[in-house]
């Protein structure tokens, strides 16, 4: 259908020239010329509706293409592993790819326009060639400056886009801090939103400056192309007049040359849009290709042992290791704890354990097997990780909990997980599992501790072989905290549990506590043993708390 429309549209200007020549010929010969008049009326009458139908068809095609690009992008983003998400270039590319989908959708429509205008130009050229070959050639040659100009513009934009994308990303991030409910409220209370607005303006000004320079240069390119095209048009007209064609031929050829130049200009513009979109499309394609489809993650529920074997790690640029010769082990059914002051290395040890960073020395062993031999998704499947900055996903209650496991889950499993995480008492007051969370969506607002219980419910639902809980009850009241830990103890035999905690009482039932100081394990043992060691780091940290 689109192809038929395209061909019909492309033939109209040439048909116009033929009918015009016949009309002038027959009128000059004193004939009534009903045939050419009817032909011209049909051709001119068909131009507008065919143009409109063609436009609507390409717009609809663009719409569906954009959906496809965005679907592929969403799936590619969902396949990013934690180690890749930590890289600045990956997030920049992701956002540039997102922006590219809005440009790429027009490319297919423009490609059809190029094809149509190309056909129009060639057919017109052939018709004008019949009247005057030199004019015909000059009409076709007018394509060259436009194509050259847009190629130059595209190259220039390819150089400018990365800077614009990086500045845009920072501005978008800062804007989100202003408009998202939690950070936005904090800034409003502090009265310092204006400072963030200043940061946005700096980045937007940077991006606007680059875009402005690009537009200025593009204008120069286009101006040069327009001048060259005008010169070629003039030369085509001179060739016609000097060629000594008949009056009818000259009139038709002049009309044809004007239509031809318009078609060529349109062709050049559409071609230019395609090559202008090329740098962004390239970023999109590179990004999507860089995360090829993989098998979905499989949660490993049965893990017999876990070991960090003489692990060392230094952050890039740091002058001392964040972990030095750290050895930790745990068997199925055990609960162990990592303790230490801020900056002691607990989070670094957890990140090394799950594979978010690569140690400079030492190994992580899962059931005696070197975890470095596993793919990142295979390795992550062993863990249920509750981090300090857990996600507050504002979806439905069911979805928020179901995010704990990659496979589909039943409502019963969601309810059991909510009960284990002591989240049942407050979720029972919501209108069911379909309840939307988050006031900004017209849903229910819930407290920080309630969000943390939902994050814990995800870990219960996941049921992985190793649970790593980094301050799992930091925002939760004392009563619920006791119930959460008693549930963890009751179900401990099903897994290995690693807890990072600053609260003395939560450490009492641990099978082993590892005390980290400056990246080194300085003590290990049970709570009472460690507390009894006078002058030990653990006793220094927890003696006051233990008295309460
Ligand atoms: N991405 C990073 N780049 C460079 N240094 C880092 C990075 N993350 C942490 N560090 C440094 O490594 C050391 C250990 O940090 P880590 O986050 O593991 O401590 P922690 O014991 O988890 O602290 P907290 O109790 O505050 O969570 C600190 O000196 C910290 O400043």
TrEMBL record:
Domain ABC transmembrane type-1: start-end pairs: 1-156
InterPro entries tied to this protein: AAA+_ATPase (IPR003593), ABC1_TM_dom (IPR011527), ABC1_TM_sf (IPR036640), ABC_transporter-like_ATP-bd (IPR003439), P-loop_NTPase (IPR027417), Type_1_exporter (IPR039421)
Keywords: ATP-binding, Membrane, Nucleotide-binding, Transmembrane, Transmembrane helix
Record-linked PROSITE patterns: ABC_TM1F, ABC_TRANSPORTER_2
Membrane topology: Multi-pass membrane protein
Domain ABC transporter: start-end pairs: 306-543
Database matches in SUPFAM superfamilies: ABC transporter transmembrane region (SSF90123), P-loop containing nucleoside triphosphate hydrolases (SSF52540)
PANTHER family per UniProt: ATP-BINDING CASSETTE SUB-FAMILY B (PTHR24221), ATP-BINDING CASSETTE SUB-FAMILY B MEMBER 6 (PTHR24221:SF654)
Entry protein name: ATP-binding cassette subfamily B protein
Organism listed in the record: Kribbella lupini
């Amino acid at each position: 259908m689109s192809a038929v429309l395209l061909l019909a549209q492309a033939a109209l200007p040439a048909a116009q020239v033929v009918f015009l020549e016949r009309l002038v010929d027959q009128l000059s010969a004193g004939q009534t010329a009903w045939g050419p008049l009817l032909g011209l009326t049909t051709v001119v009458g068909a131009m507008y509706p065919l143009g409109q139908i063609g436009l609507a068809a390409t717009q609809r095609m663009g719409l569906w293409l954009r959906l496809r690009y965005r679907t592929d992008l969403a799936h590619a983003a969902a396949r990013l592993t934690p180690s890749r998400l930590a890289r600045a270039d990956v997030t920049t590319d992701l956002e540039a790819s997102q922006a590219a989908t809005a440009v790429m959708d027009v490319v297919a429509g423009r490609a059809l326009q190029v094809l149509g205008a190309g056909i129009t130009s060639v057919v017109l050229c052939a018709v004008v060639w019949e009247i005057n070959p030199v004019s015909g050639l000059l009409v076709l040659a007018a394509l060259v400056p436009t194509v050259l100009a847009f190629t130059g513009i595209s190259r220039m934009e390819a150089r400018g886009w990365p800077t614009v994308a990086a500045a845009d990303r920072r501005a978008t991030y800062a804007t989100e801090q202003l408009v998202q409910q939690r950070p936005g409220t904090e800034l409003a209370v502090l009265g310092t939103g204006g400072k963030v607005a200043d940061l946005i303006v700096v980045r937007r000004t940077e991006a606007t400056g680059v875009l402005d320079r690009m537009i200025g240069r593009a204008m120069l390119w286009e101006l040069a192309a327009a001048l060259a095209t005008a010169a070629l048009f003039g030369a085509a007209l001179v060739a016609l007049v000097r060629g000594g064609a008949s009056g009818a031929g000259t009139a038709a050829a002049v009309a044809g040359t004007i239509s031809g130049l318009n078609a060529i200009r349109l062709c050049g513009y559409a071609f230019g849009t395609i090559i202008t979109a090329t740098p962004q499309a390239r970023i999109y394609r590179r990004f999507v290709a860089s995360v090829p489809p993989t098998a979905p993650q499989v949660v490993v529920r049965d893990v017999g042992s876990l070991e960090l074997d003489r692990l060392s790690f230094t952050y890039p640029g740091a002058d001392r290791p964040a972990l030095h010769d750290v050895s930790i082990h745990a068997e199925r059914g055990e609960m162990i704890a990592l303790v230490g002051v801020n900056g002691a290395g607990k989070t670094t040890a957890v990140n090394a354990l799950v594979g978010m960073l690569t140690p400079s020395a030492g190994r992580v062993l899962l059931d005696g097997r070197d975890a470095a031999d596993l793919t990142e998704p295979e390795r992550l499947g062993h863990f249920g990780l509750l981090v300090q900055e857990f996600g507050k996903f504002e979806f439905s209650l069911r979805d928020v909990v179901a995010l704990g496991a990659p496979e589909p889950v039943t409502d019963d499993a969601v309810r059991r997980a909510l009960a284990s995480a002591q989240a049942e008492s407050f979720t029972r007051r919501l209108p069911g599992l379909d309840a939307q969370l988050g006031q900004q969506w017209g849903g229910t607002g819930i407290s920080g501790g309630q969000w943390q219980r939902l994050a814990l419910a995800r870990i219960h639902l996941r049921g992985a072989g190793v649970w790593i809980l980094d301050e799992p009850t930091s925002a939760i009241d004392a009563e619920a905290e006791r119930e959460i830990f008693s549930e963890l103890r009751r179900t401990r035999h099903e897994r290995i549990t690693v807890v990072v905690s600053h609260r003395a009482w939560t450490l009492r039932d641990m099978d082993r506590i590892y005390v980290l100081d400056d990246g080194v394990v300085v003590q290990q043992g049970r709570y009472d043993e460690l507390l009894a060691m006078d002058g030990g780091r653990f006793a220094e940290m927890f003696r006051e708390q233990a008295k309460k």
